[in-house]
Design goal:
It is built from ten helices and 18 strands. By secondary structure, it is α/β, with parallel strands linked by helices. It folds into three domains: 177 residues, Vaccinia Virus protein VP39 (Rossmann fold), CATH 3.40.50; 57 residues, N-terminal domain of TfIIb (Single Sheet), CATH 2.20.25; 139 residues, Aminopeptidase (3-Layer(aba) Sandwich), CATH 3.40.630. It has a seven-stranded mixed sheet, sandwiched between helices. The longest helix has 15 residues. It is elongated, with a radius of gyration of 26 Å. The structure holds S-adenosylmethionine. The site of S-adenosylmethionine has 18 residues, from helix 3. S-adenosylmethionine binds next to helix 3.
Protein backbone atom coordinates (compact mmCIF):
# COMPACT_ATOMS: atom_id res chain seq x y z
CA UNK A 1 0.00 0.00 0.00
CA UNK A 2 1.21 3.51 -0.81
CA UNK A 3 2.13 5.54 2.27
CA UNK A 4 -0.05 8.55 2.98
CA UNK A 5 1.92 11.37 1.42
CA UNK A 6 -0.75 14.07 1.64
CA UNK A 7 -2.29 15.79 -1.31
CA UNK A 8 0.55 16.28 -3.77
CA UNK A 9 -1.94 15.57 -6.56
CA UNK A 10 -3.80 18.84 -5.95
CA UNK A 11 -0.55 20.60 -5.19
CA UNK A 12 1.00 19.81 -8.56
CA UNK A 13 -0.44 22.68 -10.63
CA UNK A 14 0.64 25.23 -8.00
CA UNK A 15 3.86 23.56 -6.81
CA UNK A 16 5.94 26.71 -7.36
CA UNK A 17 3.40 28.94 -5.53
CA UNK A 18 6.04 30.28 -3.10
CA UNK A 19 7.66 32.55 -5.70
CA UNK A 20 11.18 31.70 -4.53
CA UNK A 21 14.15 31.79 -6.84
CA UNK A 22 15.64 28.28 -6.64
CA UNK A 23 18.74 29.01 -8.74
CA UNK A 24 21.12 28.69 -5.80
CA UNK A 25 19.71 25.30 -4.85
CA UNK A 26 19.83 24.07 -8.45
CA UNK A 27 23.40 25.29 -8.86
CA UNK A 28 24.35 23.46 -5.68
CA UNK A 29 23.19 20.17 -7.21
CA UNK A 30 24.93 20.96 -10.52
CA UNK A 31 28.25 21.50 -8.75
CA UNK A 32 27.78 18.43 -6.62
CA UNK A 33 26.92 16.19 -9.58
CA UNK A 34 29.63 17.57 -11.87
CA UNK A 35 32.34 15.95 -9.73
CA UNK A 36 31.03 12.53 -10.71
CA UNK A 37 29.63 12.71 -14.23
CA UNK A 38 26.77 13.76 -16.47
CA UNK A 39 24.10 11.17 -15.74
CA UNK A 40 21.92 12.13 -12.80
CA UNK A 41 19.03 10.30 -11.17
CA UNK A 42 16.50 12.36 -9.18
CA UNK A 43 13.81 10.58 -7.14
CA UNK A 44 10.98 12.57 -5.43
CA UNK A 45 11.35 15.19 -8.17
CA UNK A 46 7.83 16.72 -7.89
CA UNK A 47 7.37 18.64 -11.17
CA UNK A 48 11.06 18.22 -11.99
CA UNK A 49 12.33 21.79 -11.67
CA UNK A 50 15.81 20.74 -10.55
CA UNK A 51 16.04 18.06 -13.23
CA UNK A 52 15.06 20.58 -15.91
CA UNK A 53 17.59 23.12 -14.66
CA UNK A 54 20.37 20.53 -14.62
CA UNK A 55 19.42 19.32 -18.10
CA UNK A 56 19.70 22.92 -19.31
CA UNK A 57 23.20 22.92 -17.85
CA UNK A 58 24.20 19.87 -19.88
CA UNK A 59 23.36 16.97 -17.57
CA UNK A 60 21.29 14.00 -18.62
CA UNK A 61 18.69 13.79 -15.89
CA UNK A 62 16.16 11.10 -15.08
CA UNK A 63 13.70 12.64 -12.63
CA UNK A 64 10.72 10.74 -11.27
CA UNK A 65 7.90 11.03 -8.82
CA UNK A 66 5.10 8.80 -7.58
CA UNK A 67 2.37 11.41 -8.07
CA UNK A 68 1.14 11.29 -11.68
CA UNK A 69 -0.20 14.86 -11.49
CA UNK A 70 3.30 16.11 -10.65
CA UNK A 71 4.74 14.44 -13.73
CA UNK A 72 1.92 15.68 -15.96
CA UNK A 73 2.49 19.23 -14.73
CA UNK A 74 6.27 18.85 -15.15
CA UNK A 75 5.79 17.66 -18.73
CA UNK A 76 3.62 20.66 -19.52
CA UNK A 77 6.43 22.93 -18.44
CA UNK A 78 9.62 21.09 -19.34
CA UNK A 79 8.84 18.62 -22.12
CA UNK A 80 10.96 20.57 -24.58
CA UNK A 81 14.11 20.38 -22.41
CA UNK A 82 16.67 18.07 -24.09
CA UNK A 83 18.40 15.74 -21.66
CA UNK A 84 15.48 15.58 -19.21
CA UNK A 85 13.49 12.39 -18.78
CA UNK A 86 10.49 12.91 -16.48
CA UNK A 87 8.70 9.76 -15.39
CA UNK A 88 6.23 8.41 -12.93
CA UNK A 89 7.87 6.01 -10.50
CA UNK A 90 7.87 4.78 -6.94
CA UNK A 91 11.34 5.05 -5.42
CA UNK A 92 10.82 1.74 -3.62
CA UNK A 93 10.19 -0.13 -6.85
CA UNK A 94 11.40 1.44 -10.08
CA UNK A 95 13.28 0.50 -13.18
CA UNK A 96 14.34 2.86 -15.96
CA UNK A 97 16.17 1.71 -19.03
CA UNK A 98 18.88 4.36 -18.79
CA UNK A 99 22.67 4.34 -18.80
CA UNK A 100 24.01 3.78 -15.26
CA UNK A 101 23.79 7.05 -13.30
CA UNK A 102 26.89 8.78 -11.97
CA UNK A 103 25.07 10.64 -9.24
CA UNK A 104 21.73 10.41 -7.45
CA UNK A 105 20.39 12.74 -4.79
CA UNK A 106 17.32 12.46 -2.60
CA UNK A 107 15.96 14.95 -0.09
CA UNK A 108 12.56 13.43 0.67
CA UNK A 109 13.13 10.01 2.19
CA UNK A 110 10.85 11.13 5.06
CA UNK A 111 7.98 10.02 2.83
CA UNK A 112 9.18 6.43 3.08
CA UNK A 113 7.62 5.18 6.26
CA UNK A 114 9.48 1.96 7.07
CA UNK A 115 13.15 1.08 7.02
CA UNK A 116 12.31 -2.01 4.91
CA UNK A 117 10.95 0.27 2.21
CA UNK A 118 13.97 2.55 2.56
CA UNK A 119 16.12 -0.51 1.81
CA UNK A 120 14.01 -1.37 -1.22
CA UNK A 121 14.55 2.16 -2.48
CA UNK A 122 18.30 2.01 -1.80
CA UNK A 123 18.56 -1.26 -3.72
CA UNK A 124 16.67 0.20 -6.68
CA UNK A 125 18.90 3.27 -6.65
CA UNK A 126 21.99 1.11 -6.35
CA UNK A 127 20.94 -0.85 -9.44
CA UNK A 128 20.70 2.35 -11.46
CA UNK A 129 24.12 3.69 -10.41
CA UNK A 130 27.37 2.89 -12.10
CA UNK A 131 30.09 1.22 -10.10
CA UNK A 132 31.46 3.77 -7.63
CA UNK A 133 28.54 6.08 -8.46
CA UNK A 134 27.45 8.45 -5.70
CA UNK A 135 24.23 8.73 -3.73
CA UNK A 136 23.68 11.87 -1.62
CA UNK A 137 20.81 11.80 0.86
CA UNK A 138 19.64 14.77 2.90
CA UNK A 139 17.45 13.89 5.83
CA UNK A 140 16.45 14.82 9.35
CA UNK A 141 17.57 12.47 12.09
CA UNK A 142 15.28 11.66 15.02
CA UNK A 143 14.53 14.70 17.22
CA UNK A 144 15.88 14.42 20.78
CA UNK A 145 12.75 15.95 22.26
CA UNK A 146 9.21 16.20 21.04
CA UNK A 147 8.06 19.67 20.03
CA UNK A 148 5.16 21.51 18.47
CA UNK A 149 5.15 24.46 16.06
CA UNK A 150 1.74 26.18 16.22
CA UNK A 151 -0.37 27.06 13.24
CA UNK A 152 1.13 29.78 11.01
CA UNK A 153 0.15 31.41 7.76
CA UNK A 154 2.64 31.32 4.90
CA UNK A 155 2.42 33.82 2.04
CA UNK A 156 4.43 33.58 -1.17
CA UNK A 157 7.40 35.85 -1.70
CA UNK A 158 5.34 37.28 -4.51
CA UNK A 159 2.14 35.99 -6.08
CA UNK A 160 3.18 33.75 -8.97
CA UNK A 161 0.05 33.22 -11.04
CA UNK A 162 -1.90 35.94 -12.88
CA UNK A 163 -5.29 34.37 -12.22
CA UNK A 164 -5.11 33.25 -8.61
CA UNK A 165 -3.65 34.02 -5.21
CA UNK A 166 -2.26 31.25 -3.04
CA UNK A 167 -1.37 31.00 0.63
CA UNK A 168 -1.04 28.25 3.18
CA UNK A 169 -1.57 27.65 6.86
CA UNK A 170 0.02 24.85 8.79
CA UNK A 171 1.35 23.45 12.03
CA UNK A 172 3.77 20.64 12.73
CA UNK A 173 4.82 18.41 15.60
CA UNK A 174 7.80 16.17 16.14
CA UNK A 175 7.37 13.00 18.13
CA UNK A 176 10.77 12.00 19.47
CA UNK A 177 9.53 8.50 20.43
CA UNK A 178 8.42 7.49 16.94
CA UNK A 179 10.73 9.75 14.93
CA UNK A 180 7.72 11.16 13.10
CA UNK A 181 7.12 14.74 12.12
CA UNK A 182 3.41 15.40 11.59
CA UNK A 183 2.65 18.23 9.19
CA UNK A 184 -0.85 19.51 8.68
CA UNK A 185 -1.39 22.18 6.06
CA UNK A 186 -4.32 23.86 4.38
CA UNK A 187 -3.72 25.38 0.97
CA UNK A 188 -5.97 28.29 -0.08
CA UNK A 189 -6.55 29.31 -3.69
CA UNK A 190 -8.41 32.55 -4.37
CA UNK A 191 -9.58 33.04 -7.96
CA UNK A 192 -10.25 36.27 -9.89
CA UNK A 193 -13.80 36.46 -8.49
CA UNK A 194 -12.50 36.32 -4.93
CA UNK A 195 -13.87 32.81 -4.45
CA UNK A 196 -11.59 30.86 -2.15
CA UNK A 197 -11.12 27.12 -2.46
CA UNK A 198 -8.99 25.10 -0.12
CA UNK A 199 -7.53 21.66 0.25
CA UNK A 200 -5.86 19.80 3.04
CA UNK A 201 -2.29 18.53 2.74
CA UNK A 202 -1.44 16.44 5.81
CA UNK A 203 1.11 13.69 6.21
CA UNK A 204 3.99 12.67 8.38
CA UNK A 205 7.66 12.40 7.59
CA UNK A 206 9.52 9.50 9.15
CA UNK A 207 13.02 9.97 10.56
CA UNK A 208 15.37 7.08 11.22
CA UNK A 209 18.33 6.91 13.60
CA UNK A 210 21.71 7.35 11.92
CA UNK A 211 22.66 3.76 12.83
CA UNK A 212 19.61 2.43 10.99
CA UNK A 213 20.60 4.46 7.93
CA UNK A 214 24.21 3.28 8.09
CA UNK A 215 23.30 -0.38 8.22
CA UNK A 216 20.63 0.00 5.52
CA UNK A 217 23.17 1.66 3.21
CA UNK A 218 25.78 -0.98 3.93
CA UNK A 219 23.28 -3.78 3.36
CA UNK A 220 22.20 -2.28 0.05
CA UNK A 221 25.66 -2.11 -1.43
CA UNK A 222 26.92 1.33 -0.40
CA UNK A 223 29.95 2.54 1.50
CA UNK A 224 29.80 5.77 3.47
CA UNK A 225 32.11 8.40 2.11
CA UNK A 226 31.23 11.59 4.00
CA UNK A 227 28.72 12.93 6.48
CA UNK A 228 27.85 16.63 6.66
CA UNK A 229 25.46 18.71 8.69
CA UNK A 230 24.76 21.37 6.05
CA UNK A 231 25.22 22.20 2.38
CA UNK A 232 28.40 24.09 3.21
CA UNK A 233 29.66 20.60 3.94
CA UNK A 234 30.71 21.01 7.54
CA UNK A 235 31.33 17.66 9.15
CA UNK A 236 28.39 16.05 10.87
CA UNK A 237 28.75 15.67 14.64
CA UNK A 238 26.86 13.56 17.17
CA UNK A 239 23.67 15.39 18.08
CA UNK A 240 23.26 17.27 14.77
CA UNK A 241 19.67 16.89 13.61
CA UNK A 242 20.27 17.41 9.88
CA UNK A 243 22.35 14.85 8.03
CA UNK A 244 23.77 14.75 4.57
CA UNK A 245 25.25 11.38 3.85
CA UNK A 246 27.30 10.75 0.77
CA UNK A 247 27.52 7.08 -0.08
CA UNK A 248 29.39 5.38 -2.87
CA UNK A 249 28.13 2.32 -4.65
CA UNK A 250 30.55 -0.36 -3.57
CA UNK A 251 32.93 -1.40 -6.23
CA UNK A 252 31.64 -4.85 -6.59
CA UNK A 253 34.84 -6.43 -7.73
CA UNK A 254 38.44 -5.54 -8.10
CA UNK A 255 38.19 -6.35 -11.82
CA UNK A 256 41.29 -7.60 -13.53
CA UNK A 257 42.18 -5.87 -16.79
CA UNK A 258 40.82 -8.69 -18.92
CA UNK A 259 37.46 -8.87 -17.14
CA UNK A 260 34.15 -7.08 -17.49
CA UNK A 261 31.29 -7.02 -15.02
CA UNK A 262 27.58 -7.18 -15.74
CA UNK A 263 24.53 -6.58 -13.55
CA UNK A 264 21.08 -7.96 -14.25
CA UNK A 265 18.62 -5.20 -14.96
CA UNK A 266 15.50 -7.00 -16.11
CA UNK A 267 15.38 -10.76 -16.37
CA UNK A 268 14.22 -12.14 -19.73
CA UNK A 269 13.80 -15.80 -18.92
CA UNK A 270 12.58 -18.97 -20.49
CA UNK A 271 12.37 -22.28 -18.61
CA UNK A 272 15.47 -24.47 -18.73
CA UNK A 273 15.32 -27.43 -21.15
CA UNK A 274 17.82 -29.67 -19.40
CA UNK A 275 18.05 -31.06 -15.91
CA UNK A 276 19.99 -28.76 -13.62
CA UNK A 277 20.49 -29.66 -9.97
CA UNK A 278 22.17 -28.12 -6.98
CA UNK A 279 25.05 -30.10 -5.52
CA UNK A 280 25.04 -30.90 -1.84
CA UNK A 281 28.18 -30.82 0.28
CA UNK A 282 28.44 -34.61 -0.20
CA UNK A 283 28.39 -34.53 -4.01
CA UNK A 284 32.17 -34.46 -4.55
CA UNK A 285 31.98 -37.51 -6.81
CA UNK A 286 29.57 -35.78 -9.21
CA UNK A 287 31.67 -32.63 -9.14
CA UNK A 288 34.84 -34.53 -9.93
CA UNK A 289 33.17 -36.39 -12.78
CA UNK A 290 32.22 -33.02 -14.24
CA UNK A 291 35.69 -31.52 -13.71
CA UNK A 292 37.32 -34.41 -15.53
CA UNK A 293 34.85 -33.98 -18.40
CA UNK A 294 35.94 -30.35 -18.60
CA UNK A 295 39.59 -31.39 -18.76
CA UNK A 296 40.19 -30.08 -15.23
CA UNK A 297 41.87 -31.87 -12.34
CA UNK A 298 39.53 -33.57 -9.87
CA UNK A 299 39.49 -31.88 -6.45
CA UNK A 300 40.88 -33.68 -3.48
CA UNK A 301 39.28 -34.29 -0.09
CA UNK A 302 36.30 -32.40 1.21
CA UNK A 303 36.50 -29.44 -1.14
CA UNK A 304 32.73 -28.94 -1.50
CA UNK A 305 32.23 -29.45 2.23
CA UNK A 306 34.70 -26.66 2.99
CA UNK A 307 33.12 -24.29 0.47
CA UNK A 308 29.60 -24.97 1.71
CA UNK A 309 30.72 -24.62 5.33
CA UNK A 310 32.27 -21.23 4.62
CA UNK A 311 29.26 -20.13 2.54
CA UNK A 312 31.49 -18.93 -0.30
CA UNK A 313 29.52 -20.67 -3.09
CA UNK A 314 26.80 -23.14 -4.02
CA UNK A 315 27.23 -25.28 -7.15
CA UNK A 316 24.83 -26.68 -9.69
CA UNK A 317 25.38 -29.13 -12.55
CA UNK A 318 23.53 -29.45 -15.83
CA UNK A 319 23.03 -33.03 -17.03
CA UNK A 320 22.56 -34.39 -20.52
CA UNK A 321 21.76 -38.11 -20.48
CA UNK A 322 22.87 -38.16 -16.85
CA UNK A 323 26.28 -36.76 -17.75
CA UNK A 324 27.20 -33.60 -15.79
CA UNK A 325 28.31 -31.49 -18.75
CA UNK A 326 28.06 -27.95 -17.39
CA UNK A 327 28.32 -26.16 -14.06
CA UNK A 328 27.72 -22.84 -12.42
CA UNK A 329 27.76 -21.38 -8.94
CA UNK A 330 26.17 -18.68 -6.85
CA UNK A 331 28.62 -16.65 -4.80
CA UNK A 332 27.17 -14.20 -2.31
CA UNK A 333 29.30 -11.17 -2.97
CA UNK A 334 27.54 -8.98 -0.39
CA UNK A 335 24.25 -8.98 1.48
CA UNK A 336 22.65 -7.20 -1.43
CA UNK A 337 24.41 -8.73 -4.41
CA UNK A 338 25.12 -12.31 -5.42
CA UNK A 339 27.24 -13.38 -8.33
CA UNK A 340 26.43 -15.95 -11.00
CA UNK A 341 29.91 -17.41 -11.24
CA UNK A 342 32.20 -20.14 -12.50
CA UNK A 343 30.08 -21.08 -15.52
CA UNK A 344 31.77 -23.86 -17.47
CA UNK A 345 30.67 -26.21 -20.23
CA UNK A 346 32.62 -29.34 -21.24
CA UNK A 347 34.27 -28.76 -24.61
CA UNK A 348 32.23 -31.12 -26.77
CA UNK A 349 28.96 -29.71 -25.41
CA UNK A 350 29.70 -26.08 -26.27
CA UNK A 351 27.71 -23.95 -28.74
CA UNK A 352 24.41 -25.43 -27.63
CA UNK A 353 23.29 -22.58 -25.37
CA UNK A 354 24.10 -24.52 -22.19
CA UNK A 355 26.00 -21.64 -20.56
CA UNK A 356 22.95 -19.48 -21.09
CA UNK A 357 20.77 -22.15 -19.54
CA UNK A 358 22.96 -22.39 -16.44
CA UNK A 359 23.02 -18.60 -16.24
CA UNK A 360 19.21 -18.46 -16.29
CA UNK A 361 19.01 -21.09 -13.58
CA UNK A 362 21.37 -19.05 -11.40
CA UNK A 363 19.48 -15.80 -12.11
CA UNK A 364 16.18 -17.34 -11.05
CA UNK A 365 17.74 -18.60 -7.83
CA UNK A 366 19.40 -15.28 -6.98
CA UNK A 367 16.28 -13.26 -7.81
CA UNK A 368 14.17 -15.58 -5.65
CA UNK A 369 16.36 -14.48 -2.73
CA UNK A 370 15.68 -10.82 -3.57
CA UNK A 371 19.32 -10.07 -4.46
CA UNK A 372 20.96 -8.14 -7.26
CA UNK A 373 22.51 -10.52 -9.82
CA UNK A 374 26.01 -9.84 -11.08
CA UNK A 375 28.27 -11.78 -13.40
CA UNK A 376 31.87 -11.35 -14.49
CA UNK A 377 33.30 -12.64 -17.70
CA UNK A 378 36.44 -12.26 -19.78
CA UNK A 379 36.49 -9.18 -21.97
CA UNK A 380 37.04 -11.33 -25.09
CA UNK A 381 34.32 -13.86 -24.36
CA UNK A 382 31.88 -12.46 -26.90
CA UNK A 383 29.54 -15.48 -26.70
CA UNK A 384 29.13 -15.05 -22.95
CA UNK A 385 28.73 -11.29 -23.25
CA UNK A 386 25.99 -11.78 -25.84
CA UNK A 387 24.31 -14.37 -23.63
CA UNK A 388 24.39 -11.96 -20.68
CA UNK A 389 22.86 -9.16 -22.74
CA UNK A 390 20.07 -11.36 -24.11
CA UNK A 391 19.17 -12.43 -20.61
CA UNK A 392 18.87 -8.80 -19.48
CA UNK A 393 22.29 -7.91 -18.06
CA UNK A 394 24.03 -4.59 -18.71
CA UNK A 395 27.69 -3.74 -18.59
CA UNK A 396 28.54 -2.14 -15.25
CA UNK A 397 32.33 -2.30 -15.06
CA UNK A 398 35.18 -2.63 -17.54
CA UNK A 399 34.69 -1.93 -21.24
C1 LIG B 1 8.50 17.69 -0.94
S1 LIG B 1 8.13 17.02 -2.49
C2 LIG B 1 9.65 17.04 -3.34
C3 LIG B 1 10.07 18.35 -3.85
C4 LIG B 1 11.14 18.26 -4.87
N1 LIG B 1 12.37 17.70 -4.30
C5 LIG B 1 11.42 19.57 -5.56
O1 LIG B 1 12.58 19.84 -5.86
O2 LIG B 1 10.51 20.32 -5.84
C6 LIG B 1 7.99 15.32 -2.19
C7 LIG B 1 7.66 14.52 -3.44
O3 LIG B 1 7.92 13.16 -3.16
C8 LIG B 1 6.99 12.41 -3.92
N2 LIG B 1 6.97 11.04 -3.36
C9 LIG B 1 6.47 10.61 -2.19
N3 LIG B 1 6.64 9.29 -2.05
C10 LIG B 1 7.30 8.86 -3.15
C11 LIG B 1 7.75 7.60 -3.61
N4 LIG B 1 7.57 6.47 -2.89
N5 LIG B 1 8.41 7.53 -4.79
C12 LIG B 1 8.60 8.64 -5.54
N6 LIG B 1 8.17 9.87 -5.18
C13 LIG B 1 7.52 9.99 -3.99
C14 LIG B 1 5.69 13.18 -3.79
O4 LIG B 1 4.77 12.87 -4.81
C15 LIG B 1 6.20 14.62 -3.86
O5 LIG B 1 6.11 15.13 -5.15
Amino acid sequence: MTDNIGNYALHAAIWDWGGHDRTEEHEYWCHYAAQYGKNVLIPFCAIGETGAYMAHRGFTTTAFDITPEMITEGKKRFDHVPGLQLSEGDVTDFYFDIPPADFCFATDFGHIHTIEKVKKALLCINRHLREAGILAIETGLCAKESNYTPNKTFYPKEQVYPDKKIWKTGDSSNDSKTGRCYISQTVYIENRNSNVEQFNHSFYLQCYPRDAWLSALEECGFEIRSEYNNREKESWREGDGFWIVEAVKKRTYPLSTDEVMYLLREYHGVPCMNRIEWLTANDMVKMNKHLVLCGQKPRKGDWLHEIYKNGTARYCLLYIDDIPVARGSVEPYSDAMWEAADIRVAREFRNRGLAKEILRFLCVDILSHGKIVSCRTERDNIAMRNALETIGFYLDGGN
